[in-house]
Design a protein that fits this description.
The structure is a single chain. The protein has helices at 9-22, 35-42, 46-59, 76-103, 107-132; strands spanning 62-65, 69-72. It has 133 residues and is mainly alpha-helical. The protein folds into 2 domains: 9-72, Winged helix-like DNA-binding domain superfamily/Winged helix DNA-binding domain (Arc Repressor Mutant, subunit A); 77-132. A two-stranded antiparallel ribbon has the order 1-2. A hairpin with a 3-residue loop joins strand 1 (62-65) and strand 2.
């Protein structure tokens, strides 16, 4: 994982965890990597991963079973989605609107390209959800 200088590392790791949850690679009630394992995988200090897990626990995304480890909360997908949606609307969307305005890109072109994007994404997503069931 490559880290961005503009955001705290623990928040970027929280984004990585959230991505795994939203992609259903880490399912509700499933044990997630230990602090040490994730720190080794991402090549960061274990204290940083612990801070990430504490942050996610405070949001209700993960929970700790003392002595066993951290687990994905039953409603983690909704929690992550709501957090990321609000963050996107507050921080990223204004910058996006500024960029498309400066470049003269209209909503019609955006809609067309978004539909193309969804069509391209539909095949892999439907394959994934078929295998999970």
């Amino acid at each position: 994982m490559e880290f961005n200088e503009n955001e705290a590392i623990y928040l970027q790791i929280a984004g990585y965890v959230g991505e795994n949850i939203l992609r259903r690679q880490w399912l509700p009630e499933a044990k997630i990597p230990s602090v040490r394992d994730l720190a080794a995988e991402l090549q960061v200090n274990p204290n940083t991963v612990m801070r990430t897990y504490e942050f996610l626990q405070s949001q209700g995304t993960v929970y700790n079973k003392r002595g066993i480890g951290f687990f994905v909360a039953p409603d983690a997908e909704q929690t992550v989605q709501a957090y990321r949606r609000e963050r996107f609307l507050q921080h990223e969307l204004p910058a996006f609107f500024n960029t498309i305005s400066l470049l003269g890109i209209g909503f019609e072109e955006l809609a067309r390209r978004y539909e193309q994007f969804k069509a391209a994404q539909a095949a892999p997503l439907s394959t994934v959800s078929t295998h999970e069931k």
